[in-house]
Amino acid sequence: MAHSVIQYRGKYSEMKDARLALIVYAVLGELTYHETLLPANVKGLLDVWAHTIDACGPGCIDLQFDRFLTDSNDRAAFVRLLGSAKARLLARGDPVELSHLRSRVSIQSIDFPDALPSQTIQAAFDDVLSLFDTDGCGTT
After folding, report:
1. Which of 30, 36, 114, 135 gives the lowest tally of CB atoms within 10 Å of its CB?
2. Phi, psi of 6 (to 5 degrees)
3. pLDDT tens for each residue of 19-69
């Protein structure tokens, strides 16, 4: 399984591509509920994400946080969206059934299992959230 390095403002996290794909699928699925409330930069980020998984090879996924999340409003909106996606998935029980994500978004290039333990999903989202919360660049 390939790994990609995600970064934001000098902070890094290495994640399995399938877990990054899970986060991309889940966040893009949240657009149904939040799109009208998102800043333009966050919408731009998600537009890029809709093509990132298909365009990037194994180990080369770039989520482009630094390019799009340029101020505290963008970061706060993205962190809320990420938290909403995480909560919606974890509310599905344990293990978390994932096949519903494919019906909500069109990206199909990386397969992940039909279900994952909630602890695995929690850890994947927490890895991404950790990039935003400790060096003064959090949601405030």
Report:
1. 36
2. -105, 145
3. 888 898 899 888 888 878 899 999 999 999 887 766 766 677 889 999 999
Output helix, strand, coil percentages for the chain, rounded to the nearest 5.
55, 10, 30
- For 12, the enclosing helix (H) or strand (E) is strand 11-16
Contact 75, 138 (CB under 8 A): yes
- Residue 112 structure tokens: 């992940």
Domain positions in the chain: 3-132
Answer whether 81's CB lies under 8 Å from 30's CB.
yes
Measured from the Cβ of residue 140, the count of other Cβ atoms closer than 10 Å reads 7
- Rounded Cα gap, residues 140 and 119, in angstroms: 27
